[in-house]
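Re: [help] complex structure
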Amino acid sequence: MTNDKCQMTNEGIIKLLDKLKDEVNLFAPQTNEYGDTSLAQVKDACNVQLKHFKPVMPAVREVLFGQVKKMLRYQKSAGKTTVATLDDFSETVIFGLPTCDLEGILYNDVFYGQREFPDFYYNRAREKLTLITIACVTPPNKNCFCASMGHGPFATKGFDLQLTDLGNGRFMVEVGSSKGEKIVSLSPGLFEPVGQNEIAAWEKIKQGAERLPRKDFIKKDQALETMGREPLNEELLKDISNRCISCGACNYTCPTCACFNVVDLENQGGVVRQRLLDSCIFSGYWRMAGGHTPKPEKIQRTRNRYFCKLVWDKEKFGDSGCVGCGRCLDSCPVDIDIKEVIRSLA
Amino acid sequence: MPTYEYKTKAKNVIDPAKNEYLSRPAVITKIKKLNSDVKHFSFEFPDQLPFIYKPGQFVQVSIFGLGEAPISITSSLEVGQGLELAVRSVGKVTKALHELKEGDEVFIRGPYGNFFPYQEYKGKDILFIAGGIGLIPLRSLINSILKQRQDYGKLWILYGSKCPADCVYIDELEKWSKLDGVEVLLTVDSATEGWKGNVGVVTTLFEKIEFNAENTIAYLCGPPIMIKFANVALEERGMDPSDVITTMEMHMKCGIGKCGHCALGHKYCCTDGPVFSFAELKTLGAEE
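Output below.
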């Protein structure tokens, strides 16, 4: 993989985004008139914020899948029925992706994109997706623990371009792929070469970010070692499931939760089959026709959630599915903290 | 930064350009009522493309506007049957399926899942234990094994249902019972007038047969409670859990290991199953 470096000014980035927004679907962090910041489609590049930002919904959900993905259209006319694939993907660039979201996409690249049945819709969308990440150099948010999980604050692979704020009105740009190279080569005037001084400044910022004090540091390696060999702490699971109100927010905001539901909806004289996000914490998620549900108790579903995320993902995909973004705790109304579960294993 | 990669070597990866969610039209050529809420359907594919499957696999049947349901295949290619499904009217899709007539069209994709291992058990005695509509997927296996009858030892088919009127494929059970070396034993939970067979749960039939646990393979399919007790009874008789094979029922929504609904421990019922041995199920901690 190429990992060439160059640099851009803040104004250069805005110029690049202004050009990209006309060529592709461009998503970037923007603050709306009510003061809320989210990853939204760019209409005016001047509104894009260049700070590191963790959106409430991970990009894999918001942009790559969409909360609802239309899959098939079924139409019956003059006695003849047709089923057609709805394939309407267009070139998309996400700017300002945090490292934890990049990790979520890299996980889904394997979960959806590979294995025995590569997912048609995921791969179509992914082929047309370019990722420009911004490395996290600021103190971590309240619930962030990506460094504990080894998934941040800098990405070392998987990005097309990674930007680091050098603090002097300039960003270091790392080129991680041919898609990234293409962006650089199509706007040569906006990217400037880097010298020894900039590299040294960047190294210093990177080391500084990695050394930022992080409370609640988890001994992940130790926990991963234990996972699967030792049972999860049943008392802790009982406590968690007693508190849990089964709202599903932890699943919906998790960048590596991949479960979906399929629903047929009537639409313009036909039927559109679509998939929506689903949550394994709902009892209805497991229910079969006829009413039998294999996991009627909340503790069974809680156990499934943590085993799936921490133990089985590691067995199947080489690392736990938890990237340490802290969104499950950010969004939990009853303060359930996945770190407690991981810590109980360490 | 750790790397996510698929640790299991993927077997039979489909063509990535294929949309696996897209199903094929299939026309119902024959409908037969098996009991008050189970119907047997035969299908043909107007596209004339082959449909290859093995006993134990399932398909996803679509009725657009209502959804998709996973249905196990009851026919056997070994004996020249096309695609046959037997369906209990229980949910949205299956109720609608029951309303359809011969000549009507549905959409089908698959087949999915693994299949009953049986070619490797040549020379063994075979014990089939079915409860209620659990006979539907086993019928595919029974017919496939009967096609190679000479390769196997003794065959027992134990079948239990709630009441005599609930028995499915009663004509075929009778046909099988007349074959050499095949013993068919029926039982019902509650008898009605005229019933001459056994009364009691399916495990009560175990007392009526002599089988050598060392040389027998058992295939089980039925409601969870039957599976549980039959498994205990087989273990008491000295059966090795890896020789006791069953097929699991979970909510297999996508059928291709993505949607997550059919998770059985760390496995997916749809791609790793639905056929599991009890030795596997024990490691999955799935005996709930």
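Chain A touches chain B through 61 residues (CB under 8 Å).
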